[in-house]
Amino acid sequence: MPNCPQCLKSFSSARRVAAHLAQPKSKCHAWQRERLGLSLHSSSLTVGSTPNSSPSLDGFHDLPACDGFDVVQPVHDAIDTFVPFGDSDFDGEEGIWNPSVAESAALLAELGQGRQIQPFSSAGEVFDTGETFLKRFELDPFSSFRRTNLYYPFSGLNDWEMANFLLQSKMSMAKIDEFLSLGSVRTLPLSFWTAKELRSRIELLPTVPRWNYRIIATSYPTKSPAILYFRDSLECIEALFNHPYYADHMMYTPFRVFTSAERVVREFSEWMSGDVAWRMQSKLPPGATLCGVILSSDKTHITNMCGGKVAHLLLISLANIKMAVRNKASSHAFLLNALMPVVEFIHPMHRICSVLEARLFHECLDIVLQPLKVAARIGRMMSDPAGNLRHCFTPLAAYILSRIQCDPNDVERYFALCKDFRLSSVAEPFWRNWPLSDPANFLTPEPLHHWYRKFWDHDVQWCKNALGAPELDFRYSVLHPIVGMRHFKDGITALKQVTGRAQRDMQRFMVAVIGGAASRDVVIAVRALMDFRYLAQAPRITSIIQDRIKATLAEFHNHKDKITEEGLRRGAESGSALNHWFIPKLELMQSVAPSISELGAPVQWSADTTEHAHIEVIKEPASTTNHQNYDTQICRYLDRVERCQLFETATRLSALGDADDTHDQDLAVEDDGAEDDELNMADDEDAAAILKDIWSSRRSVPDFFGIAEKLRAALPGSIPHPVRTFSSGATALCVNRRPSIKCISIDKAAELFDIPDLRGALADYLSHEGPHAQNFHSFGRQRRSPPGAHLPFSDLQVWYKVRLQQKSYHDSSSLEPVFTINACPPNCTWKYGHHDAAILQVDARHEWPASGLTGHTVVDVRLIMCPVSPRGLRLVWDDRLLVYVRRFDIVPQRQADVDLATGLHVLKRATRASGEFLGDVLPLDQIKSYAHLVPRFGEAADNRFTSTNGFHSAQSFWLNRYFDKEFYYALSL
Fold first, then answer.
1. Are the C-beta atoms of 291 and 133 separated by less than 8 Å?
2. Distance, CA of 275 to CA of 279 (rounded, Å)
3. 8 Å CB contact between 10 and 3
4. What is the dihedral of CA 530, 533, 539, 540, to 10 degrees?
5. How many CB atoms are closer than 10 A to CB 807?
6. Does residue 45 have a pLDDT over 60?
7. What is the DSSP letter of 145?
8. Which residues are registered as beta bridge partners of 834?
């Protein structure tokens, strides 16, 4: 059946598809118009070309096809003859054009208004109609059977759902047989009754990139054969490029972003926004689509306690997929491309064995990546998720290795000569014949291992030596806990097997912990490196921020000598003081700022996603094996799971199309357009929901903004009051449906929460509110109402906590994790109550987070409440949640608002002239962010501090901007 190329719906005829695309307000109609020439990602064909014309391949040599790849050998000579297309100067005007408003709309919607977009001219063009994901599903050899039974080779939907559940349940074959033999299961109308029969039926499902193996001959003996398991790398890239889940998250054209019309300040984010992608595109033929290949290789343990089994995996992904999606492990954007042989060479010199292993690794990569090298030279026609046929090139960065005048087969002598030049002794690295390649393209900064690991290996050790391990551990143990974040109740210095997440959690507090204890220059050095890490992790970096990143690293180098002077840098084993700075990870930081303009934001190259992929593609499959021949069983398991996932996607989308086709039987373009527009939009949402359900995480971030919007649009009287979830600006707040205290008198609440001026504060609030509710309230006015002021209500509803969610600082369409702000009364654990700090808006002209602390203040949240109207009377204020807060004042420092060493604001509790704390009642929706305060411990922390009394007992605090990256950006950018 024909499909809509945008939403992938199936229709009974091509006329139905045309009618579906003709609906004027539908997303598919807008997509069709963009395809005809208004879209940035599908730019117009060049003058003189036709939609059915194929890209010119003049000047290319014929190369063997990649079909039957398992027997194809590398054709290095043919690949080495690559000649770049065009010689346009990168800094010149050739190949640069000014896009129209319509052509910039796509990126402006993503990057925000006020920016200027400069796409690459004549790139990413559509040459013909290709195959959508569903079209490929229909080309399966068994598609004729699916015309009558969509779920063939299974008898129906229920049969398939049972099969899908069993195959993805990680049950062994014996357990599946045991389950299928149960009496209650035998009553079901299944088409299979054994695990073997079930797996044989899976082989009839549409194929995925197939697994091959090859025995690699080695020049030196090994203890076991070197067997390479791999898939066609180009087929893996095609599978990602055509995947429907990435349809709205794919980029086809390099572009430049400027923050203003003057085009003075550049902004870097995705790989396509960097200069490398622009230069690569300039060397491709007109209309070509650049498909940047991302590779990740690492070893991971299959067995930890015994056996010592190790897998060496090669993951592959596509840089065209937006990093926000690609970097989510749940998006499955990294596919397992190969399992490299892990063998032990027999040689008396251990170092020579390492050289031989490295050579074997590069030889295997040569085999696996051969199809990509061919496609990087002559291109490959590939279909994108919408079914558009594009001429795609698949480059990776290359490294031209300096060669030694010696026979590489003489390993011992070759190694000796390479050692003088600090080379790896790999004579033929895999990237040597990969066209459009440069070392800077794939030798990218890697935050997880380069930055976080360096913090644990060095920064933490300097701080431990400066304060002493007991003092540093005590300070970490008494920090005010944050719900959802790790609390180091026993300190950090004795931790074993520290993960990347633990290293990140330590970073949140280190600067505030050592402030006032370590010497000033040491604190500045540690803080400068912290600023470097936080600024470099931003998903969008302007050229101004790029200069700040350079400046933070220079600041560290200006103050690092104090670390060696005090003997804080010591050997890991000897413990003796070191006077040098030979730290490779520190040296690698020098390349971070230059790489931003070349490759985009460094955070997209973090190994967090690929490290997590080890669980999905290695550890979980290995757990289902019989612990023999792991590699073959892992490959078979992944093949089954991928077939099931793709079959589930295809059948559900097809079923959706069949259901909608019933409605479209009598569809005409002129009929009831408004109603049909709504149905089409609903269809698009249904297809997106199916893809999200299958391919995204089941543990998604709550969307308080969406809930608040639905409640705002609800019919009057259909929802309880006060509304429990609401949003204001970039912040959404949510309290529980049931109050923690359903009804309590004002005076009892004042006593329970230790708020003597609660009644007077409520009276002042009502006086300012006047007869009309929903006014904005300022903070710090003189208390005008007496403590015993009369109020039109006598009782309160009380909540002990409110959950807060914010939009991302750099992307308002992205939601951040939820923070919990506590306001609990004293109890047996929290002697003084469990309170948290927050950012409160006090000036309606300034919005969080764009304004930072301007127009905002830091407060201690003491009570979350709502007035209870007297029976039979409805007050105008009883549908608005209120909060009683106490203000913190910023203590001015030497010619600055922040402490120059830590870069943090110093706070103290604000008081009135009478000496009582400055508190007030304000609307809850004026709270904009969670805030974390750290006591100023001084040179030595008071040993009476605990994690439950420090917030109450400390006299002054640091406003810790490092506890969350989004909070850091709000205060620092």
1. no
2. 6
3. yes
4. 80
5. 19
6. no
7. G
8. 824
Give me the pLDDT at residue 50, please: 34
Q: Verify cis geometry, omega within 30 degrees of 0, for the bond prior to 481.
A: no
CB atoms within 10 A of CB 459: 21
Cα separation, 847 vs 828, whole angstroms: 39
Burial class from Cβ neighbours inside 10 Å (0-12, 13-18, 19+) for residue 540 reads buried
Model pLDDT for residues 613-654, shown as the tens digit of each residue:
888 888 888 888 888 888 999 999 999 999 999 999 999 888
Report helix angle 173-180 to 195-202, nearest 10: 110
Q: Which of 251, 336, 331 is nearest to 292 (CA)?
A: 251
Token pair, residue 765, equals 């609030």
The secondary structure element, H or E, covering residue 658 is helix 630-663
Largest CA distance in the chain: 98
Asked if residue 335 lies in contact with residue 321, where contact means CB atoms within 8 angstroms, the answer is no
Specify the 3-state DSSP secondary structure of 528.
helix
DSSP 875-932: -TTTTS-EEEEEEEEEPPBTTBSB-TTT--EEEEE-B-TTSSB-EEEEEGGGEEEEE-
Q: Is the pLDDT higher at 879 or at 186?
A: 186
Pick from 907, 917, 888: which is nearest to 783 by CA? Answer: 917
Q: How far apart (Å, rounded) are the C-alpha atoms in residues 625 and 297? A: 23
Task: Please calculate the CA angle 631-343-69 and round it to the nearest 5 degrees.
Answer: 55
Query: How many C-beta atoms surround the C-beta of residue 280 within 10 A?
Result: 25
Structure tokens at 184: 């209650």
Measured between its terminal Cα atoms, the distance across the chain in Å is 53
pTM of the model: 0.84
CA distance 25 to 34: 14
Please say whether the beta carbons of 153 and 205 come within 8 A: yes
Where are the extended beta strands (E) located within 705-828? 725-728, 731-734, 741-745, 795-799, 801-806, 819-824
H or E segment to which residue 296 belongs: strand 293-301
Confidence of residue 787 (pLDDT cuts 50, 70, 90): confident
Q: Is the four-CA dihedral 699, 705, 709, 712 of positive or negative sign? A: positive
- Phi and psi of 791, rounded to 5°? -125, 150
Mean per-residue pLDDT for 333-357? Answer: 85
Cα(492)–Cα(497) distance, integer angstroms: 12
Q: Is 811 exposed, middle or buried (0-12, 13-18, 19+ CB in 10 A)?
A: middle
Nearest-angstrom CA–CA distance, 712 and 709: 5
- pLDDT class for 6, splitting at 50, 70, 90? low
**Rounded-to-integer distance, Cα 597 and Cα 273, Å:** 8
Model confidence over 618-628: pLDDT tens digits?
A: 888 888 888 88
| pLDDT(41) > 70 | no
Taking the CB of residue 659, how many other CB atoms lie within 10 A of it? 13
Instruction: Write the single-letter amino acid at 331.
Output: S
CA distance 103 to 252: 13
The mean pLDDT value for 946-962 works out to 94
245-281: pLDDT as tens digits: 999 899 999 999 998 888 889 999 999 999 999 999 9
**Contact at 8 Å (CB) between 733 and 925?**
yes
* Rounded Cα distance, 437 and 434, in Å: 6
User: Token pair for residue 947?
Assistant: 């994690």
Cα separation of 132 and 28, whole Å? 15
Q: Tell me: the pLDDT tens digits for 512-523?
A: 999 999 999 999
**Phi/psi-derived region of residue 601, left when phi > 0, alpha when psi is between -120 and 50, beta in every other case:** beta
Cα 256 from chain centre:
22
Q: Residue holding tokens 């901007």?
A: 961
Closest by CA to 263, choosing from 88, 117, 101, 90, is 117
DSSP H helix total and E strand total for the chain: 35, 27
**Other residues' Cβ atoms within 10 Å of the Cβ of residue 189:** 9
Q: How many residues does the chain have?
A: 973
